[in-house]
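Shift notes (night). Ran Fibronectin type III domain protein while the centrifuge was going.
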Amino acid sequence: MATYQAINACTWRNGSWIAGVTDYVRQGVYAPANNYENVGAMLFDLTSIRNTYANYYPTSASIRLVRIAAGDWGSARTITLYAGNAYGLPSPSSGTSISGSRPTKVTSGYSYTVSAGQGTKDIAISTALIDSIGSGASNCLFMDAGSSTLNYMGFRARDDLSQIVLTINWAIRTTACSAPTSCSLSATLSEDNVTLSWSGASGGTNNAISSYEIQYSDSADNLNWGSWTALTTVTTTATSGSLSVAPPSTRGNYRRFRVRTRGTAGASYYSGWRVSSNSVRRNTVPSPPTTVTATPINYSDETITLTWSGASGSTSAIKGYQIASRTSTDNSTWSSWNVLTILALSASGGSYNPNVSRVPGTYTQFGVWTIDNLDVYSSEKISNSIYCDITACGAPTACSVSSTLAEGNVNLSWSGASSGAGNTITSYEIQYSDSADNSTWGAWTALTIVVTSTTSGSVVVSPPTTRGYYRRFRVRTRGTAGESFYSDWTISSNTVRRNTLPIPPTSFTATPPIYETNTVTLMWSGTIPGTSAIKQYVIQQATSADGINWSVYEALTTIISSATSGTHQVNASPVPGMYTRYRISVTDTLDAVSSHVVSNTVKKNSPPAAPIIVSPMTGKSTYNTIPRFMITTGTEPDGQTQIVEVKIDSGEWVNSVDNPERFSTSGYLGNGVSTVYKAEPLAVGNHTVTFRCLDSDIESASTEVVRTFTILPPPFETITANETVVKAAHIQTLRTALNIVLSYYNLSPVIWSEEIIAGRTTVKKWPFHITEIRKAVDTIITVVNGFDSSAAFDIPPVTWLPIGKGRPKADVMQQIHDLILML
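Came back to this:
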C-alpha cells in the first residue's frame, strides 16, 4: 500500500493554473459568494507513481478528502473523478499563474458524494479508474465539481478542502516468460530421429517456467514453408531441454521446429516462439546403377564378371552396394534373390566376380542395389541373364614322347584329361606336325584315334622320315556331347627328331664393321650339334673393292673346338675402302660338314672429305661480334654420318652433336649438308677459325680448313634526329661497310651507280642511294637465310622505314647501321 498527496489545482472557467499554496495543495481560484466560480483540481502525477511501481499493478484505491468548512450550500456535495492527460503544468512551488486547457479524458467520469460536515471523507474509487492507473493510459486524476452552484467546492473557501490523499494497494506485476536464445537440430540430414535442443529460456515475473511447447513446419525447398503443426509439450522447469524429433515423412522434404516457454501464470504470459536455426531433411533414396552387365552370356567354367555404372547417391553419398543373384530354368520364372555380398565402395560403378551355378541349363541374373551412408537402399537394377551351358571336355594336362632322338618308334603318352559337364570322355584324337628347325612347323596331320574313357593313355608313334627333322604331337579329349564340346589341343612338351647333321652357328659376326687397325674379331654362337658331337670349325674369307663384286672364298683357318660358340681374331685387309666377309661351317666327329653361315661385311675405314667453307673468306672482315660461319659437309666414303667441328683461335673444339645450340642444323649430318655456326661473342680484332669433319663411327678426322678474319669496330657516326645532318661521308661509310661484309660472305662488292661527292651530289638523289644500299643489304640477307634449311640463325625479315624526300632521316640511317652490325 502507498499514499500520495495531491499537488495542483486550477480553475476551469478561466483556464488557469494559478499561484498560491495551502498547507497541502496548490490552491485554486474562488470568487465572492454567488459568483459560482467552480473549481477543478488535478490530484496526482500518475506517471511518477507508475515509475516507482513499474513491476506492480494496482488492485484497489481510495481517496481521502479533508473538509475544513461545514458547507454553506448543503450538507453534502457531489464530485466527479476521471483519469486524463494534462500537459504544461507548473511546479508546485511556482508563484506564477499559467494558462492551460482542460485535460484530455481517457475514462468516463465517476461521481462520488462527499458527506456533509468537516473532517475526513474516504471514497473508494471505481475499478475502471484503478485499471487506468495501472495501464499507463493517463498521467493524472482530475476532480471536477462541475458548473452547478450546488456542487461548488474549493480550497480555502466555501466548503473548503484542505487535503486530498490517494491510497493505492499494489500487487506485484506478472511478466511473460522469455523464449530460448538458441534452438537447433543435431543433424540436417537424417533417415531416423534427430535431437532438437534449446537453451537460454527464462521465466517471467511471478511466472516460473512450467513447460515448453513444440511445433513443426515442413517445406519442399527449405524456403517456402507450410503452416505450423503442434507436436508436443515438454514438461520441465529447466532453462534448456532437448527432444527426439522425426524428419518429414516425405523424402527430400525439410522440417524446422519452433519452441516457446510456458509459465505458471498461464497462456497470456507464454514467451514468443524461437524457430530452430537449422532444419532436418528426410534422406532421399539413392539411385541404382543405370547399367548392370554380366559376362560371358554363355559360360561353363569361366570366371563371371559383373560390372555396373551410373549409380548415384542423393542427399547422402554412396557407401556401397548389395549384390544378389537369382536363378531360373526357363529365363522367365525366377527364384527369390540370394544376397551374395555387401561391397564397401563409394564410386558410381564397379565390378565383382560372383559365384554362380555350374549346373548346365541354369540361367542366372544379378541385382545391384546402391546403399548410401545412412544405409538406405535403392531399388535394384537387374543384369542381363547368363546361361550355364554344357561344358567341353578338359584337355590333358601333360603330353610327351618317350625319346627326343630316334631311329625307330617311340611312345606318346598323356594324362590329366577330364570329362565336361554332361559330356563324358569317349576317346582321344592324335595329330602330328613336322619341322626342319624345331621352330617353324608344318600343318597338323591326322594320325589316329585312341578309344578309351580313361583320363590318360599312350600310343606308339614314329619320328619324321626326313633326317634332322622334328616331329611334335597334339592330343585332344573327345566326349559324348560331340565335336562342339571337344577339349582344346594339348601339344607335346617335347619332340622326337630323326638323326641329323650339326647345325651351323645361328649368329656369326665380324667386328668392327669399319676398322681403323687391321685386326677383326669373329664371333659365333648358336651352333646345334647333330647326333654326333662337334669336332671343329672351318673359316673362309672373300674380298671386294666395291662391296658388290666378290672374290672366291679361300680358306683362312680351322679351329678345333666342341663348343657351340667361340671367338677368333684375324688380320683384315690393310687397303683403305676394301670390303671383307667371312663364312663358317661346322664339322662333326664323323667329318660331316654343315652348311655355311656368312658373316656381315667389314671395311677398312676412309676419312671424310674436308668441309666446304663459304664464310668467312680468309683475310676478310665483318662488324658482327657474333659472326656466322657457313659450312657444307663433304663426302664420307664409308657412308657414315658426319660430325662438324669448329675451333676459334686456341679455344676448344665445338661440335654439332654435343653443342647443337651453336649450329643451325645440328647432330649427325649427311653428305653435302649445309649448316650455319654462330659463334659466342668475340672481341674486335683478328681471329682464326678451324673447321673439320669427323665420321660418326670411328671419328677419324678430315683435313682441317683454316680461315682468318677480322672483326672491325663499328664505323658509323651517331646520327641524332633533328641534330645531325646526313652528309656524303655518311653514305660513303655505309657503302664501304657493305662491300666489306659482302667480301666476308664471298660475295662480289657492289659497283655503285653514282659516285657521291661532298657538296656536289644533289639532295634529291639521296633516296636513290639509300635504296641502292638497302638492296645490297637484302642481297646479304637472302644469301645468309637461304644457305641452309633451318631458320635458326636467319636474319629477321626487314621492314624498311619510309625514306621520305631529301636527306635520309636519323631512324632510316640507324636502321641500316643496326643491320650491318648484325650481318
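The first strand starts at residue 2 and ends at 5. The helical segments are 46-52, 127-135, 728-744, 766-785, 810-822.
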